[in-house]
Amino acid sequence: MSRAFVFPGQGAQTIGMGRALAEAYPAARAVFQEVDEALGQDLSKLIWEGDIETLTLTQNAQPALMATSMAALAALETEGLGIATASFVAGHSLGEYSALCAAGSLGLADTARLLQVRGIAMQEAVPVGVGAMAALLGLDYDTVVEIAHEAAGDEVCQAANDNDPAQVVVSGHKAAVERAVELAKARGAKRALLLPVSAPFHCALMQPAASVMSEALAAVVIEAPLVPVVVNVRAEAVTEPDRIRALLVAQVTGAVRWRESVQWMEGAGVTEFWEIGAGKALSGMIKRIAKGAATRAIGAPEDVTAALVAQQPA
Q1: How many folded domains does the chain comprise?
Q2: What's the confidence (pLDDT) of residue 314?
Q3: Backbone torsions φ then ψ of 277, nearest 5 degrees
Q4: Helix, strand or coil for residue 173?
């Protein structure tokens, strides 16, 4: 049996996430403490006691979700189910940073600081109200690419997230994305709706943020990962540090090829996917992509216990 650890992206955040892990596992608590120190702020207090609007701010949500994922991984490590038991790691958008941290490519403090910079840069790249994103459900990726191209006109509209066989997200100028929604409905989409996001992620409008991340990433050490990282923009495993660095920059404006990434891992022999951190969104996508694969979400102490029990011989 081959296992992949996968790490969630923005949208999975909830108040209180990871707190039970920190209370049950000293190693998990240490993760939150190190992230707080790296950022010079009490992020863990915001995560556990704050308001969801502040937590959802991109510069807070990104390091917070990574910290929660790394805390869950620390709990798994404590029980002997850590990174050495995975054949691959992957993450959705910011989750790719969590995957790289999990695999030892990035240090925890560096990852937290990079994600804070990334969150601020992505928010500042496009004035509020200029861009938008929309989920188009019930249409395949190629159809959405055609719709985005038609909707763009002289503006930007791109397929940004290829999440699963029937869920693709477009991103770009607000008017162009609104045109894409109407075109999708006319093409038979089951649903087409604007998303409550603060910026148009993973499209060409994010180029200013990509430039910021290029400088930020040039200043940190990236090691070869302990296990291969399946990256968003290539949908294949990568292990070379310089290539990882370049692809993290490309990821800011490039599409998240999640469906293809899961298919690649399935083709490489992965039979079970463990979602490490907050929520179960990736597990739902994976069930629609790799229908024969098993999924498991690890976000609380009872999840770690269940995973441990499942490893015991019958």
Answers
A1: 2
A2: 65
A3: 130, -145
A4: strand
Catalytic residue, candidates 92, 98, 198, 202: 202
Which of 33, 45, 37 is CA-nearest to residue 70?
A: 33
Q: Which residues pair with residue 168 across a beta bridge?
A: 136, 162
Q: With a cut of 50, which residues of the chain have pLDDT below it? A: none
Domain of residue 172 covers: 131-198
pLDDT of residue 191: 97
Question: Is 149 considered catalytic here?
Answer: no
pLDDT at 128: 87
- pLDDT computed for residue 172 by the predictor: 98
Length of the chain: 314
Q: What is the reported pLDDT for 313?
A: 78
pTM for the whole structure: 0.97
Do 138 and 65 fall into the same domain?
no
Domain boundary among 178, 198, 218: 198
Same domain as 153, residue 80:
no
Nearest to 112 by CA among 125, 98, 99: 98
Same domain for 46 and 153, yes or no, is: no
Coil, helix or strand at residue 157: strand
Whether residue 155 is found in the same domain as residue 300:
no
Cα–Cα distance, 248 to 76 (Å, whole number): 26
Of residues 93, 171, 198, 261, which has the active-site annotation? 93
| Locus of tokens 């294949």 | 236
**How far, in Å, CA of 220 to CA of 229, rounded?**
18
Three-class SS state of 126? coil
The CA distances from residue 143 to 134, 160, 167, in Å, are 15, 13, 11
| Nearest-angstrom CA–CA distance, 314 and 309 | 10
Contact 92, 9 (CB under 8 A): yes
- Which tens digits make up the pLDDT trace of 164-221? 999 999 999 999 999 999 999 999 999 999 998 889 999 999 999 999 999 999 999 9
Are 118 and 241 found together in one domain?
yes
CATH code for position 157: 3.30.70.250
